[in-house]
Amino acid sequence: MGKHNYIIPNNIIEKMSPRITIKKDFILIEPKEGTDFREIQRGVARLFFVEGIPEQNRIWVFREGPENLAFDDLNKLKDIIKENYPAGAKINKTAIVVKSGLQTSLAESFTKIAVDLPQKFKVFSNLADAEVWVKQP
Q1: Which long-range contacts (CB under 8 A, 24 or more apart) does 104-108 make?
Q2: For residue 39, what are the CA distances in angstroms to 1, 92, 94, 128?
Q3: Structural domain for 28, as ranges
Q4: Cis peptide bond prior to 18, omega within 30° of 0
Q5: CATH number at residue 28
Q6: Domain assignment of residue 10, yes or no
Q7: Per-residue pLDDT reduced to its tens digit, 79-112
């Protein structure tokens, strides 16, 4: 493992934020209002380490609210994903749905930083378009 070791117990409380919903064709991740580095970090850890979460494309939906995510945090998020991405995983797309201008800037910046990760990231302003994209082969 790399410099980050995140251990998430199997008996994690499923109602903790962010809310994760397993849909037929994708996994929907819904953090609380705004953007928060620790909450995103917690969500990524749950997606990789909690048993029962299938390897499916993902949609993160961010709502307007307090912003607790800096541009400096984006490289940290990339490192967390890179270090914990399962070998041979089938996850190849992650949609990011945002509402505010700052969220859009952060999300677009992340897609550029994460260009060398083993999955594609794309930013959307609505859930319907994100669903269409993650369902496409």
Answers
A1: 106/35, 106/69, 106/71, 106/74, 107/62
A2: 22, 22, 17, 24
A3: 19-135
A4: yes
A5: 3.30.750
A6: no
A7: 999 988 877 777 899 999 998 889 999 999 999 9
Q: Comparing C-alpha atoms, which of 137, 132, 123, 133 is closest to residue 60?
A: 123
8 A C-beta contact, residue 74 and residue 42? no
User: Structure tokens of 89?
Assistant: 């995983």
12 falls within a domain: no
**Which single residue is written with the structure tokens 């378009």?**
129
> In this structure, is residue 126 part of a structural domain?
yes
Give the pTM: 0.85
Q: Report the pLDDT value the prediction gives residue 54, as an integer from 0 to 100.
A: 86
Residue 13 lies in a domain: no
Cα–Cα distance between 58 and 20 in angstroms, integer?
A: 10
